[in-house]
Amino acid sequence: MSMEVKKVKYDIIVMMILMIVCVLFYFIFIPGQIRLSGAWNGNTSFSSRTFPYISVITIFIVSSISLIKSIVTIKKHKSEISLEAKAKYTFNKKTIYHFFMPFIVYLIILAYGILFMKIGYIFATLIVPPILLFVLGCKRWQIYSYVYGFAAIMYLIFKIVLKVPMP
């Protein structure tokens, strides 16, 4: 199986999981964690749930588009599958690394959450994202700058525009 087909299969699984998580957030986690005060009465289109809902919907739409794109790519490459690809799958260091990668990423995100509560948004965001990008094998410095730029924008939106206190 070509490396591209393997990657596309992983993408399909990740996009499906991401879509399920978005549905869970939309219907269970956001309503369960973000309570509406009595002032909202359901008559307004903007509440404390608006930004999380928009974020979840956006992620769901992007995941859906990526899922469709991956399925189309698999269908195009289906004819390229050879007998070698159907041979027994063997484990080596690289496949073991890829097997444990989701767990490593989960632990890094968990560490980010803990650091976020202990030392605050700014220091946690300065420490953890570069570690995550390094573990994922990112070698382009521009990506690191995009992450810090996005973090700065989020900080400004929450601190200045929305006036939400950040830990």
Tell me briefly what this model is.
Helix content is 73%, strand content 0%. It is an all-alpha fold and 167 residues long. It folds into 2 domains: 87 residues; 78 residues, no CATH class.
Domain count: 2
Residues in β-strands, percent: under 5%
| SSE arrangement, N to C | HHHHH
Which word captures the global form? globular
Number of strand elements: 0
Q: Which stretches are low in confidence, meaning pLDDT under 50 for 5 or more residues running?
A: none
- How many separate helices? 5
Radius of gyration: 20 Å
In whole angstroms, how far apart are the ends? 47 Å
Q: Quick check: average pLDDT? A: 82
Helix content: over 70%
By helix and strand content, what is the structural category? mainly alpha
The major sheet is characterized as: none
Keywords:
167 residues; mainly alpha; 2 domains
Structural overview:
The chain starts with a helix and ends in a 6-residue tail after the last helix. With 167 residues, it is mainly alpha-helical. The protein has five helices and no strands. The longest helix has 31 residues, at 3-33. 73% of the residues lie in helices and 0% in strands. The protein has two domains: 1-87; 90-167, no CATH class. It is globular and about 55 Å long.
Q: Which helices and strands appear, and what pairs or packs with what?
A:
Blueprint lengths: L2 H31 L16 H28 L15 H27 L1 H15 L5 H21 L6
